[in-house]
Each structure stands twice: as structure tokens, then as C-alpha cells.
Amino acid sequence: LPRRCNCTSSVHPWLFLGLGNPGDKYKGTRHNIGEPINKLLDKSYVTAKRKRQKLLDNNKNMVLSFDGSPASIGMNMSTGCEFPTIQTFERAPSAADFESGFELTNFPAVFRGCASDWEACSKWNPFSNGLDYLEERAGSVEVEAMLSRTAPIFNGDIRSHERVSMPFSDFIRLCKQHMISKEKGSGVDAKSASLTPPLPQDPTTPGQIYLAQFPILNDEKEEKVQLKILRQDLQTPSLLGGKSLSSINFWMNSAQARSSTHYDPHHNLLCVVSGCKKVVLWPPSASPSLYPMPIYGEASNHSSVGLDNPNLSDYPRAELSLQFSQEVTLNAGDAVFIPEGWFHQVDSDELTIAVNFWWQSNIMSNMPEHMDSYYLRRITRRLIDREMSLLVSKPSSTLLKQPSEHLDQCKIGQTEGGDGNSSNQSIEKGISTLREKTPLHDLDPSASHALHDLISLVHDHVNAVGTSRELQHTSPSSSDIAPERDSSKILVNALSSLEDDRVAHMLWNLEASKLRDVLLAMARYFPRTLEALIIHMLSPVAAEVLTQKFDEIDQQSGEEDRSQFYREFYGAFDDESAAMDIILTRKETFAFQAFKNVLDKYLGVHITSPTTNL
């Protein structure tokens, strides 16, 4: 056979026609160049996780879970990934311990009393004349408040709110009037506050206004830092010692408010100065259940789903969102570390004031721009592989109709080669060793069942379409592959899951060694049936299952046996290259479906069919 290699992102011996495992010479090449990256990332994570655990072990009296019991490790049952419970520390760690034990793991943590020694905690307290102090210190500053059309929920999407410019003193006056109205048990609207300049024409309650993300410090836009006068009442938490901060922001609401679910492109330490905040957090891997806004949109870091009462007909995956979430409560002086990429929803009590610190992660700051496209491809490929594993999840064996009988002696004699004592001459290539190992009569009972089912399935299909004569006398050529590629859109629609595809299900339920025996039996005694199975009935999901089984066969076989197996398997086809191309094309079609799912789940992008150079 001609030597032929199809280069892919990983080494698959079955891609080498009859040549067996390519061997160690491909290690370290572009076939598996992602392996060192994964090992490096895994090593860094494991090192940080060990340091974090050591810190926990040395400070057991510092750590409490939500109910006051010792912190525990939880398991994310949907993905099988381990997600520890977000832990609460009664005092903050040192800067070195924070960086090595928390920041590097990209996992949240709560630090009680982290900001309790700030002067702001006493001076800004609305219930201790804090509003008078703020008005005196910064009342003349012009601020931009968010006026929400969906209050008390404040969305990051600019279509749901507008920015209203006003003196800080007017915002403080609204807060004061809200306090008075709450004491009297009545409401207050913006018109009664006699604001200058007035708010928009429609009646507006203080609950619709939120002073969000107003800068106290900004390393890029210093000229826009109007509230820097309040910086003297704050201290940079000791755990952030040595950090190059991107910004420090002021947050204040008069009535109850909720920020919509979103993630930030920076590490975040959120500190409550006065009041109370409840923060619900989701790891970045929970993105599919949160339906992120399209990556090309202005609010791409926000969820498109209201999680209180989601429309499950439009957002079915949202039903799983609570399984991935954890909630923490912050009172005055408390802080929570929210790593970059972690989705969070923040509920604020009335008259809550907070300050947050943003800084760029080491991963992002050390990522050279000329590597962006490579990292994009690597990460996308990893997400595709994970999605393919989800699509090819093990089905219940009860869903597969069991055959009612073995292949009896009469049917064994009715091979496509003649009387059962001879085999098709096209596969006589000196493979006597394999032939002796698995004669048709000595098949394992479960393999015999599977062989019977596959043959029956193919023949039923052939009879249904009236092409049995054509299948006996024709075989695909390389020219048939172009239409195959063009039909990928149709194939994609047929691969919904493993359980919906009988051929894929049958292949999956067979052990690799038994499938090997079945395929060899078909190659020797039913070559045209094998050809019909591969050419006409192998769906994209079945192609993925078949190649996964090929990989298992490779791991269980010696190099000589692997080479002989593939020679005999592909030898059943008149055009071996065409057969391999069809398997690869349908496998790639399956991967394209996984790619579409990745775009939908993680980037909020929907596509319908492959395009050139996609």
C-alpha cells in the first residue's frame, strides 16, 4: 500500500493506511504540541492548590463554611470536575500567600474584616451621618448615575439603561430622602427631590438610580477620576501588596439593587464599606448554562438570561445554572476575591456602599499578543474535544435492541465470498495470523450477536432503498468525496446524540477487542456489507465512535497486529483512500457540530453550516 499520512492535532495510528502506530518519532512535533502546555498549566494549578491547602491546614480556626461548619470539598456532578466550596477566612492572608494560594488557582474566597480598619467604614456609614460627610467631601463632583429601565435590576447592556449626569450632592439628597421615606413608610420619587438638573420626564424612584463603577483611581484615565478625594479614607488591603492596580471604583445604591450576571476581564476584590451584599458566583465552565451574550456585542460579558425565572423553552440549559452556583454574604468590612472570568450576580441592600479593586491577572499580563491566535486555537480545540466527549456519552444499554439469535451455521456459510470456506480475494494479503485468531465460527457470543445485528441492519437498509445490486458491484472512488463534503450540513442534522443512532450505539457497546473481531469477520466474509456500512450508513457520530474504538484497539495491540488489522480492514474496500476519506469527513462533520455547540455555549454565536476556511 502507498504510504499516506493525514496530519491532525493528535496521533492516530488508524490514519496511517496499514502502517500501524507511527511511534515515538512523532512525539514533540506539531501533532501533540499542546501536551506540554497542558502539563505546564496542570503543574501550576496543582502547585497553587497544594499551597492553598497548606494554608487552610495551618489556619483551620480561620476557615468557616457558609453554615459555620468546617469547609468541605464539593463535586460538580455535571462535568465531574472538582469544585471546592468557596471558603471564608476570619482574617486575610499575606500578599505572598494570597498570590500563591488563591490568585493562581483562580478560585474565589471570602475574607472577613478585610476592610474593617478603613476610616471609610465609620465616616461613610449612612446611619452615622455618613451621607453628610460624603456630601461635604465630594458634593460638588459631577457624577454619572445609571438610570435603569428594569429596576431594581441593573443590566450591563446599554440598551437597558442610560447614564444620568448630576452633582454627587443630588445623589446624596436622594439617599437621604429615601431614608426619611422608609422611616415614614412612604415612597419618594425623583421629582420630589428638587434635583438640579432635573431627571428625565418620567417619574423616577431612587431605586432606579445606581452610582456604579465610579472611579476613585484609574491608571489609564486619571483625568476622569472625580472621586479621588475619597481615596484618603481607604487603604489598599495588605493581601494586594505589590499589585499594579488597574482601578479602584465606588459603588452606592439608595434602594435595593441587583447587578445582572456578568464576568469581569480583571481580578476583582470587592469590599463592602456599609450595608450588605449577597454575591452569587459561577465558575467560567458554567458559561453554557448562563447563555453569555454574543462575543461581538457591547455586553459580551453579561448573561442573557434572567436567572430568577428563566424561560426554559428558550434557555433550556439555564435549569442547570443553580447547580454550578455558590452564594456568599458580605457585611461591612468584608471582602470577596472574584477571579477574572467568574460570573457573578450581586444583590445590594438599601444604602449599601462598596469599593472594588481591579488588577490584571498574571496570565493575561504575561500573554504576548503575537501568541493570541495560537492560544485561541488551542483553547477552542480543547473545548471542542470536551464537547465531543459530552455528545458521545455512554448510553443506557437497555436502549439498544438486543439480537434475538446467534449467527447460525447456515448464515455463516452464506458469506459474500461464496461457500464459507474461502474469503474474498481482495483481502488475501498474507494475514494468516489474524485469520487464525478469529475464525467466524469461534466468535465470542456477544461479538456474534453484534455481527448479526450489523449485517441485518445493513441489509434492511439496502432493501429499503433498493440498492443491494449496486452495493454488490460498485465501490466509491475519490471522486465521490466532494459530494460527501458538500453534504456535511445534512449529516450534521443527523447526529443529535449517540442514543439516537443505532449503528453508533452498537459500536459503542462493544468492547474494543470484540469490535476488532467483528470488523475482521466482516472484512473477510462480508466485505460488501462492511463497505455499505462505512460508505452509506456511518453517520458523523458513528464515525467518531468508530475512530475512538480504533484508538482503544491500538492501545491493546502490538505494532505488528495493528498494522495487519488496518491492512485487512481497509483491504475490504476497492478504494481504500476513499473509505478513509469518508470516515475522516464524517468525523470532522461531527467535530463541526461540537464546534457549533462551543460557539453557542461559550461565545453566544450561532452558525448554521460550515463555510470555506472556517
Automatic annotation (TrEMBL):
Species of origin: Brassica napus
Segments for region (Disordered): 185-204
Boundaries of every JmjC domain copy: 225-374
Gene3D superfamilies in the cross-refs: Cupin, Peptidyl-tRNA hydrolase
Family: Belongs to the JARID1 histone demethylase family.
Entries under Pfam families matching the protein: Cupin_8, Pept_tRNA_hydro
Protein name according to UniProt: JmjC domain-containing protein
